[in-house]
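Encode chain A's predicted structure.
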Amino acid sequence: MHEMSVALAVIDQVETAAAEAGDVTAVRSVRLQVGELAGVVPDSLAFCFELACAGTLLEGAELVTEAVPGRACCTSCAHAWAVGMPPRLTCPACGGTQTDLLAGRELRIVGVRWEDGEPVPPPTREPISEEC
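Encoded structure for chain A:
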């Protein structure tokens, strides 16, 4: 299960970014683009991420995965299409076999939400009226 090594790499990169930012006290969420051709099972990655975060700055952080569909373009006729799963890499327009993969192999951190060391004031609330 290589999802564990992916989860560990994501955690390492986020911890490095948090250290560079300074005074980060907790990571709340990590947004990750996962291409459908990347060979990563999002549910397995989420499971591994939760386990790997234990005892780190990311403990309790939510992993939000955004699926990126696979797309290819024919070099002969310039037709672009969704390749699907399993991937269809033969051009549906002309039958050409020379294609460029445009999208679908992504595995990229696109956002991190964290808290810094500044105290967060509690939300102000209106007093509750005793009238019913």
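The CA atoms of residues 60 and 100 lie 39 Å apart.
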